[in-house]
Amino acid sequence: MKKYKIFILLLTFILVQTETQATNDSLLAKPSNGISTGMLFSSNGLGIHLSKTLGQKGICALKLSASYLPYTLNNFVINVDGSNINLNANSSTGFKLKLNGKIELGSANLSAEIHPFKNAFKITAGAALMVSRIDLIATPRDSLKQGDVSLGPDEQGEIFFGLTVPNLCPYLGIGFGRAVPKKRVGLNFEIGSYYIGSPKLAFRTTGMLEPTSSEEKKLNNNLKTYYALPVITLGINIRLSK
Q1: Which residue, among 209, 187, 150, has the nearest Cα to 39 in the 3D structure?
Q2: Distance of alpha carbon 115 from alpha carbon 176, whole angstroms
Q3: CB contact at 8 A, 108 and 128
Q4: CA 151 to CA 96: how far, in whole Å?
Q5: From CA 140, how far away is CA 53, in angstroms rounded?
């Protein structure tokens, strides 16, 4: 984590220095209006964008972008505290679950970038159509002994759960770099957050795990405190216009 923070700080410093120098050399002499495209690498997926400046000074740009990253879990094992799942009255030693399913991250964004100080610093605001969701099935990995009886994983039951976020979510972020670079190629870095309100969790169990199905309401109440989805984005922009 420490190395990750150092990398982000170093990248931010480079972007500030590069963009500030470009601003000092040509902000007044060369209009910054134009069109660009490029790649996006973010915690919400990989994507592309198309951007256009508004006005002649290049302090505001309109960006249309999309990102997507699917991930499949195959028998991914996690440790679970048995006291949190009512397998039986004496289950408190913990056990292991296998996770199978899909995790999808992604969105289609329409946003405006503003450079209030006419340098590399920017404020971004907009909205996104979210496609992020999680659909997983959890099954016990090991057999469970109850007295002289041994129950296999299939006999113990399954846990089905899905997590979705609202379709339309506001976005706000800050960063450095221009969506439409002054030169042919430019970089930008941004950190922000989607306001996702209250995510919706679907939770269902079968077999010996079925009594825990009543936990769905409690889990959804706990999710009400998670109203933001942070995102970090690194972009490579290519100017299309002269």
Answers
A1: 187
A2: 9
A3: yes
A4: 14
A5: 54
Query: What is the predicted pLDDT for the residue at 147?
Result: 67
**2-239 fold:** Porin (2.40.160)
Reported as a single tens digit per residue, the pLDDT across 126-138 is 999 999 999 999 8
> Structure pTM?
0.74
Q: How many CB atoms lie within 10 A of CB 10?
A: 10
User: In the structure encoding, which two tokens stand for residue 1, read together?
Assistant: 């984590």
| Angle, vertex CA 207, rays to CA 203 and CA 211, nearest 5 | 55
pLDDT one-digit tens code per residue, 140-150: 888 776 667 67
Per-residue pLDDT reduced to its tens digit, 31-52: 457 999 999 999 999 999 999 9
Q: Which two tokens stand for residue 24?
A: 């000092």
Q: Would you kindly state where each structural domain of the chain is located, as residue ranges?
A: 2-239
Tabulate helix, strand, coil % of the chain (nearest 5).
Answer: 20, 50, 30
